[in-house]
Amino acid sequence: MSSTIRQEDVDLSHSLFEVTVEPLLVDALVDLVLTPGDGAVVTFVGTVRDQHQGRKVIALEYGAYAEMAESEMRRIGMEMIGKWGLHGIAMRHRTGKLEVGETSVIIAASSAHRREAFEACSEALDMLKVTVPVWKKEYYEDGTAWIGVGAG
User: Fold this and answer.
1) What is the reported pLDDT for 82?
2) 67: burial class by Cβ within 10 Å (0-12, 13-18, 19+)?
3) What span, in angstroms and rounded, lies between the C-alpha atoms of 16 and 18?
4) What's the whole-model pTM score?
5) How do residues 127-138 score in pLDDT, each as one tens digit?
6) CA-atom Rg of the chain in angstroms
7) Distance, CA of 105 to CA of 46 (rounded, Å)
8) Interacting residues of 11 by C-beta distance below 8 A, sequence separation 6+
9) Domains of the chain by start residue, with CATH
């Protein structure tokens, strides 16, 4: 899909692209993307895990350039709608300090068939991790480390 696609040419009525400090809820995004024509809604839920490269993680702190991040998520969403024929897609990324087990990112994709929803959800996540300006600070038992842009 060309990067010249215009937002007004894509139906985004069942889509959302947001960076927020609020806790993330899977059901809210599933409800948003679901349409009567869907046979599948696939979700990805990213959570804070308790270790990274052999170090014990006690928390993560996410930061983002919210306006740019939401714009890039919208671009990714439009591309996924065009490529996979999605009926809806939502991406929410949390910012602020999160404890182990908390949800940091959710992607939900809806389509008539499961394959398209699975593929789109996976591809959108891969793109988000590379291009969306989100960074994180990892808090370990023995110190901290910033992880670069797109490392969500």
Assistant:
1) 93
2) exposed
3) 6
4) 0.90
5) 999 999 999 999
6) 16
7) 5
8) 81
9) 10-142 (3.90.1170.40)
